[in-house]
Predict the structure.
Amino acid sequence: MGLETEKADVQLFMDDDVYSRHSGVDYGDPEKFVDSSYDRDPHRLNSHLQLGFEDLIAEPATTHSFDKVWVCSHALFEVSKYMLYKFLTVFLAVPLAFAAGILFATLSCLHIWILMPFVKTCLMVLPSVQTIWKSVTDVVIGPLCASVGRCFSSVSLQMSHD
């Protein structure tokens, strides 16, 4: 029940071949299908997700659990994180990629075939609209505002405190 004096170095090695037992082509050999040096996050969009056990759980020097508990909890954390991520990607990656593809295809189509022609048309028509608006402003709105300004220019307000 005292403090254990041994410090255990925790390393977890998982072999993908254990999980790829099926008939047919062996997909467990990544060199056959995927270039292992290929960076799946070249723009570092998810660099903040490199999270480890030590980043989440830490025991101060004054309170330590048993070393075996620490090792087992570390191993359980790594295995559960690995397996749950694989499980979720199997069921969510393809449908979400499909939905994102549909969304971006729709947005691209709308942008290319509706939005940009509308903007270009507005930019072509704007010089004539600008000329018409300037004429309306000079003929109607300008004299109206000048008349109202002259009417109110003779008005003076005095405030008295009773």
